[in-house]
Amino acid sequence: MSPPSLIDAHPNLAGAAPLALSYELFPPRSPAAAETLWTTIAELEATSPDYVSVTYGASGSNRGTAVELVRRLVQETSLRPLAHLTCVGNTPQELAEIIGELLDVGVRGILALRGDQPRDGELPADGSLRYAQDLIELIRRVEQRRSALLCAGKVAVGVAAYPTRHPESPSEAHDVEVLLAKQRSGADFAITQVFFHTEQYAQLLTRARRAGVTIPIVPGVMPLTSIRRLTRLGELTGVEPAPELIEKLSAAETDAERNRIGVAATVDLANAALDAGAPGLHLYTFNEHASALDVLDKLALPRPHRAGNRTGAARRGAGQQLAS
């Protein structure tokens, strides 16, 4: 019998892991939007997130602006970009080229997504990939071919998880089976789509762990401050926001009151996920920093200290100087 491992004999050797923090951004659609985005980036950077995800349009419709934003994040900021990549409508050859392009600009994290099916009924090109797990396997093949180049920074692959049934799925159990297949294909972690009820993340975690999913599942939380955005996302996800929250937001007489109500509801949602064992939080910013930072201020997440990390008034003051 082999002797017991020293690591096994000291299960708490490394202590508890700090909570992860990340944000989602999308490429700007105009010069004015770009200026606003870079003010937001400066504000978010001051909180020392672990990474920021950058979305990718359907079938790569904004590929150029997405890759340019990623490149600037790598070269001009301290932020680590997690590049979204969708596979529907693209062949392995096309996707391998895009993956190589992302790696060449310094990306070491990719969120592998299926992407939306064409709305015009057009059939995908022959040989194009159909599922996120196919994209994960392709990323791993490209990574393997570049092993010598990536020895100081292997690729982390993330995927989407669904706290409620995907609109195209027959059941929540099927969604978990899909998540398990993504893990088997090489996914390292998952980020959830938006959810609106405090129990939904815990229920997803229970279903996933029982099915054998072991990768971290990070809750994706959006500031619940905009009635229009809540309504729209409810339509897209098929999950209605809490009626009482919509009523409170609608009854608010000022933007400040509406923001206070929405931030409080978001904090409740985030705290419920953390209490259920979430390894961190991913905040959907919609390229706006104010509400996201209000949520972060009230959560007081335990975060590792990093040189240059600023919080509170110092953080906001820096953002005001950059914007002036």
What can you see in these coordinates?
This protein is of the alpha/beta class. It has twelve helices and nine strands. The protein has helices spanning 6-9, 31-45, 63-76, 92-104, 132-145, 172-185, 200-211, 227-237, 243-251, 255-275, 290-299, 312-323, and strands at residues 20-25, 51-54, 81-86, 109-113, 156-161, 189-192, 217-218, 220-221, 280-284. Strands 7-6-5-4-3-2-1-9-8 form a nine-stranded parallel β-sheet, with helices on one face. Helix 5 (132-145) packs parallel to helix 6 and helix 6 (172-185) packs across helix 7 (200-211). The termini are far apart. The model is unreliable at 308-324 (pLDDT under 50).
N-C termini distance: 68 Å
Tally of helical segments: 12
Show unreliable segments. 308-324
The radius of gyration over CA amounts to: 20 Å
Core attributes:
324 residues; nine-stranded parallel sheet; TIM Barrel; single chain; 12% strand; alpha/beta
Outline:
The chain has helices spanning 6-9, 31-45, 63-76, 92-104, 132-145, 172-185, 200-211, 227-237, 243-251, 255-275, 290-299, 312-323, and strands spanning 20-25, 51-54, 81-86, 109-113, 156-161, 189-192, 217-218, 220-221, 280-284.
In terms of topology, how is this protein built?
Layout lengths: L5 H4 L10 E6 L5 H15 L5 E4 L8 H14 L4 E6 L5 H13 L4 E5 L18 H14 L10 E6 L10 H14 L3 E4 L7 H12 L5 E2 L1 E2 L5 H11 L5 H9 L3 H21 L4 E5 L5 H10 L12 H12 L1
Parallel strand pairs: 1-2, 1-9, 2-3, 3-4, 4-5, 5-6, 6-7, 8-9
Helix pairs in contact: 2-12, 4-5, 5-6, 6-7, 9-10, 10-11
